[in-house]
Amino acid sequence: MNRQLQTPVSGRPLRGLFVSGTGTDVGKxxxxxxxxxxxxxxxxRVRPVKPVQTGVSGPDDxxxxxxxxxxxxxxxxDAVAPATLRRFAMPASPHLAAGRExxxxxxxxxxxxxxxxxxxxxxxxxxxxxxxGGLHVPLNDTEDMLDLxxxxxxxxxxxxxNYLGGLxxxxxxxxxxxxxxxxxxxxxxxxxxxxxxxxxxxxxxxRQDNEALLRRRLAGRGARLIVLPFEPDLHSEPRASxxxxxxxxxxxxxxxxxxxxCEPRAGEEAAVxxxxxxxxxxxxxxxxxxxxxxxxxxxxxARSRRNRLALADGRELVDGxxxxxTAVHGYNHPRLTAALRRQAGRMPHVMFxxxxxxxxxxxxxxxxxxxxxxxxxxxxADSGSVAVEVALKMALQYQQGVGAREKIRFLTPRGGYxxxxxxxxxxxxxxxxxxxxxxxxxxxxIFVERPSCRFDAPFDPASLEDARRAFEEHGRExxxxxxxxxVQGAGGMWxxxxxxxxxxxxxxxxxxxxxxxxxxxxxxxRTGRMFALEHAGVTPDILCCGKALTGGVxxxxxxxxxxxVAEGICRDGQVFMxxxxxxxxxxxxxxxxxSLELLADGAWRRQxxxxxxSLRTGLSPCAxxxxxxxxxxLGGIGVVETEQPVDMAALQDFFVQRGVWIRPFNRLxxxxxxxxxxxEDIARLCDAVRAAVMEGRLS
Length: 699
Ligand SMILES: *Cc1c(COP(=O)(O)O)cnc(C)c1O
What we know:
Elements: E1 16-21, H1 28-41, E2 46-54, H2 65-72, E3 83-88, H3 94-100, H4 107-120, E4 126-130, H5 145-152, E5 156-161, H6 166-179, E6 184-190, H7 200-218, E7 224-228, H8 240-251, H9 255-262, H10 265-284, E8 301-305, E9 308-311, E10 316-319, H11 322-325, H12 334-346, H13 358-370, E11 375-381, H14 384-401, E12 409-413, H15 422-426, E13 446-448, H16 465-474, E14 478-483, E15 487-488, E16 494-495, H17 499-511, E17 514-518, E18 542-545, E19 557-562, H18 563-569, H19 586-600, H20 603-619, E20 628-634, E21 637-642, H21 648-657, E22 660-661, E23 668-671, H22 679-694
Parallel strand pairs: 1-4, 1-5, 2-3, 2-4, 5-6, 6-7, 10-22, 12-13, 12-14, 14-17, 17-18
Antiparallel strand pairs: 8-9, 9-10, 11-19, 15-16, 18-19, 20-21, 21-23
Bound molecules: pyridoxal-5'-phosphate.
Pyridoxal-5'-phosphate (PLP) binds at residues 383-385, 388, 417-419, 484, 489-490, 518, 520-521, 546-547, 557.
C-alpha cells in the first residue's frame, strides 16, 4: 500500500472514460470496439488502452482484444493503436494470471503505467480504458479493478449482458460505481447470444424488460442506455464491416459523452466551473479566519486519494497538512470508507440520551486501552472545541463537587491553542487568540510564560518559575491547568521539554488543581508517540482528543477523565451538565474504530519515524537562511519559523504552482503530512519550502 506513486503532479490531466463490464462474457470488448469505431468516425481521437490483458501471449495474438479493435475499425486502422500495458498468458483473473508468471499487480503501479502511457501519447484526446471482467475482479489480495477506477477518477461506462440475470449485475455495478464517487456516463446492454429456437420468445421478453427497467432506474442519473443487438456477422467477411457499422451507429448517442470527457474543451469547461464555484463561494460562504467582504482566494477541490489532492481544474497536489492534523492514514482509505458505508447502512445516527450502541461502547473501550491507566471515563463531543468546553466544565463541576467553590479559574501557558468557542478561547494565547476583540466577555484566566525549555535542549527548571509564582499568588482560585503536552500547535508550533509537564503536575497536586491535557492535535501518533504525554510519563486528570481520532473522515472528539474526577462531579446525586445533539454519532464512532484498528498494526511508528527523518533532511538547510528564525522537527511535524509574518495568499499560490499543499500562517510555514506519504513526496514538500525561503518569497 505504501509503494511509490510515481505519478506526475503536473502535466496534462488524464482524460477519457473507463469502460468496465459487469462481469465476464458480457460483450464488453465488442461494445468498446463499436464505440471506438463511432468515435473515430466522429473525429474524436480516443485511444483504447487495456491496463491488464490476460490470456494472450504477445501483442499480435489474435485472441487479444487488440484484434477485435482492429477488426472494428478496419480501414481506419491508423487512427487507433490499441495498447496493452500489462499482458499475461493465462486466461484468468489478473491476480491469478500475473501470479502464475511471478508478477504482482497493484493499483499504484497500474495507475502510474496508465499515466505514463497518457503522457507519452500527446496526440490522443483521451483514453478509453478497458477493465477486465467485472468491477470486483481482483488485482491482488486487497485491491480490485474498481480500486484502480477510483484511483484514476475517470467517468465510467458499464457494459452488461442483456439476458436473464444480467440486470442484477448491472444494478449492482451501477451502485458500486456511485459508491466510489465516480460519474456513470452510460450503460451498454449487449446481446451476446444467438437466438435459440423455442425459447426465443421468452428471451426477447427478458431483454425488453431488462431494457425498460434499466431505463427507469437510470432516469435522472444523467447516464445513457444503449442497447446493442446480437450481430451474427461480426466474424464473417465480407459482412463484418456492415455489422460493425450497425453496432457503431447504435453507440452514436454515447459519442458526445466521450467527446466531453476527452476534448481539451473539458479543461476549459472545468476552468469555467471552477471560476463559477469560486464566485458563488465568495457570495454565500465564509471560510475560517477570513473576511466575508474581502476574502483570501480559495482553491476548488475535486477528489482526494492517499496523500494527494486533486483540484477541480485537474491539478494534483502533494498534501502537507493532513487537513489540519486529521488525515493521518491519507485520504479515502478503503477501510475507513468501508466502515462509514457499513454503518450508514445500519444506523447513521441515534440520540445518545437513554440509548447506546456498539460502535460507541467499543470505541470508548479502545480509547481507554490506548490511554494510560487512570483515565477511565469517555465523554464524546462533536468537535475539539466542544471537548475542551467539556473538560473545563468537568473541572469546574469537580471542584464544586468536592467543595472547593472558589476554584473557578484556569491556568495555562501562553502560546496555547484550544479551540474557538468562548470557554476554549479564554485559555488560548491572548495575543494570537485576539482576546482584545472579546474584552469583558471572556472569562479572565491566569496566563504564565510559554515553556521556554526547548524539546531538544537539556531541561531548565527555571522554565517552571512563572507557573510556580502564579500558583503561589492564585492557587486558591485555580480549578485546573490546561495545556497541550509537548507540542503547542496552532498557537505557535512550539516544542517544549517533557519535564515541564512533570513539574506542572506536581504544582497541580500541591494546590488541588486538576491537570487537563489537550491532545487534540498531538494524539494518535503525530509526535512519534501514540499520545504526547508518553514523552513525559505524566497522566492528566482529564484528556481531550479529536482531530485524527477518525482518521480525518468525520468530526468527533472526546474528553476522557479519571474515576476520581467522575466521582467528584457526581457526588450527592449530581449529574454532568453537557449533552451535544450528535453525541456519540455512530458513523463517527465506526470510522474512529476503523482508524484505531489501522493504528493498531503499529506501522505508524515506522512511518512517523521516516517522516521525521525526511522532514529533518529536507528542512534543516533552511536554518540560518535569511528571513528564517528557527527550524524544528518532531515526529511528523516540521516547522520553519520566519522572522516576519508571511504573505499568506502569495505564498500559498507559490506552493500550489509547485504542486504542494502547504498553508502557512503568521510566522509559520509548517508541514504535518499524512503518515503514509512516500519519502519522495516529503522531499517535494520540503523542496518547495526551501525554494520559498531561497527565492525570498516569505513576505
Ligand atoms: C484544533 C484544536 C482544537 C479545536 O478543535 P476543533 O475540532 O477545531 O474544534 C483544540 N485544541 C487543539 C490543541 C487543537 O489543535
